[in-house]
Amino acid sequence: MASSNSETEGPDLTKGVSFGDLVDGKPLLGHVGEEAVILVRRGDHAFAIGATCSHYGGPLAEGLVVGDTVRCPWHHAAFCLKTGVPLRPPALNPLDCWQVDRDGDQARVGKKIEPAEPPKVEGPASVVIIGGGAAGAVAAETLRREGYQGLITLLSADSAPPVDRPNLSKDYLAGTAPEEWIPLRPAEFHKAHKIDLRLETEVTGIDTAKREVTIKGGERLTYGVLLLATGAEPIHLPTPGADLPHVHYLRTLADSRAIIKAAEKAKTAVVVGASFIGLEVAASLRTRELEVHVVAPEEIPMAKVLGPELGEMVKQVHTDKGVHFHLGQTADRITADAVTLSGGEEIKADLVVMGVGVRPRLALAEQAGLATDHGVTVDQYLQTSAAGVFAAGDIARWPDPHTGQAIRVEHWVVAERQGRTAALNMLGRRDPFDAVPFFWSNHYDTAIQYMGHAESWDSLQIDGDVMAQDCRVSFLKGGRLLAVATVGRDAEGLQAELKLEGG
Ligand SMILES: Cc1cc2nc3c(=O)[nH]c(=O)nc-3n(C[C@H](O)[C@H](O)[C@H](O)COP(=O)(O)OP(=O)(O)OC[C@H]3O[C@@H](n4cnc5c(N)ncnc54)[C@H](O)[C@@H]3O)c2cc1C
Questions:
Q1: DSSP secondary structure code for residue 340 in this structure
Q2: Global pTM value
Q3: pLDDT at position 4, please?
Q4: Which of 118, 187, 264, 302 could lock 147 by a disulfide, CB 3.0 to 4.6 Å apart?
């Protein structure tokens, strides 16, 4: 289709297009001035909305239209076509929308629609959120976006304001993402939205009867409702030498910065553990041109989660980039300049990163007497066993309607979506958390998307060519589809999510 200038694609939507030619539910990419816009027909109506996802800039013209929403093909954010409001994280910012005028068969994009102020809503006298990560940060801003006027206190043990944590093992660690990508929000955001963000503030106790939290140092804070979103922490193995200064763990921005600093001087790194984070760290350190060794007890990396075929593909991707795998082995001992493997081999290393998994931070929940079961037990509204206390993110074990089981996952998008749902329910809505779990993982230029949840499966169906990184892998149990992973097939990933939703 003709383009009016080199920067924009598709028709100038202000000049009008034939309504009859628009395919219902198929976005048409065009532009309004310099801005890329998609025009979406739904029945007798057409909607015009910004074409670029506000998360990482995914192309919404290649997205999926569901009802009056459009979903991004990259990380499955969703926006309302009528208002541009982000309905599903990981997008946090709204998109611009334009008026669409009809004149006979012509649909013409007109003026930008001014975003409406949310009506004020009644709610609890105050909300205290413990945890300034994905779930906590999204919960705080959702409360404001929904029109909540009361006090919001966001307590975080971290020294950094909420950050884009997934980036800490990827572009940021590789040195290919600028510093300004990392904060989830600009410095002034929380103050401007009257969110009392308190950093380096560790909560040491919760009294659910008095509705009070205690902060390290003794300060007490009462709450109307409380959200517990303390996330997870890296597992520390009792390996001799694991506490040496050149041995790193990765959870926070400070951790990522410490690895970057160490990588600037190091020549050889050993990554212990072929977890998602471990392998992403390996990729980032290769990008920084370190020699990288990965030590892990499994024979095929990630096979437990992704199946052996995708695991082999991931291994090949890393091997092609020069990563040395030492599989079927563990690290027995770490010294200042070497790691000794269980097979006896010694690898010289001046940097060691431990990526052997995480465990949910449950100490506060347990101390408060909340029901726990390898996670904080919540109901479909993300309420814990104590009145007025919600939990979200890596710590929450919720009844997943898709698998019929209570599950707990460690996914960025799930944590953010739970933060949003918890916020709505703290305002008195009864909004069940029923999102299909979604995560992504990047290894150099290879992106894996995973929809659903399969702790085990009895049948694995592959469509396409896994080693060519063009595939859809379906995980089934008893004939029931539990999860789908895709590589190089973003549109199919969106379709799979919809199918898993039952749509
Ligand atoms: C390096 C890295 C890369 C990742 N990449 C991906 C990815 O590609 N895709 C994906 O889906 N997921 C990824 N994840 C996982 C994802 O980041 C987590 O699932 C998500 O951050 C969980 O959100 P959360 O809010 O539950 O916890 P977190 O984001 O960990 O936040 C927890 C917060 O609680 C605070 N806290 C804990 N205890 C206390 C206390 N007692 N008092 C006060 N504050 C406290 C912490 O300081 C922190 O601010 C990655 C994780 C890491 C570490």
A1: E
A2: 0.96
A3: 39
A4: 118
Ligand 1 binding site (Cβ under 6 Å of any ligand atom): 130-136, 155-158, 165-166, 168-169, 202-203, 229-232, 250-251, 277, 361, 364, 393-394, 410-413, 415, 439-441
User: What spacing in Å lies between the alpha carbon of 231 and ligand 1's midpoint?
Assistant: 5
331 forms bridges with which residues in the sheet?
341
**Rounded to the nearest whole angstrom, what is the distance from the C-alpha of residue 277 to the centroid of ligand 1?**
12
Predicted local confidence at residue 2, as pLDDT = 33
Q: What number is the average pLDDT over the span 170-175?
A: 97
CA–CA separation, 211 and 226 (whole Å): 8
- Which ligand 1 atom is nearest residue 392's CA? 26
- Please calculate the CA angle 320-325-326 and round it to the nearest 5 degrees: 165
pLDDT tier for residue 7 given thresholds of 50, 70 and 90: low
How many angstroms separate the alpha carbon of residue 189 from the centre of ligand 1? 20
Residue 33 neighbours by CB distance under 10 Å: 11
Mean predicted confidence (pLDDT) in 31-39: 97
Superfamily, domain 126-233+359-426: FAD/NAD(P)-binding domain (3.50.50.60)
- Do 153 and 127 form a contact (C-beta atoms < 8 A)? yes
CATH of the domain spanning 13-112, picked from 3.40.50.300, 1.10.287.70, 3.40.50.720, 2.102.10.10: 2.102.10.10
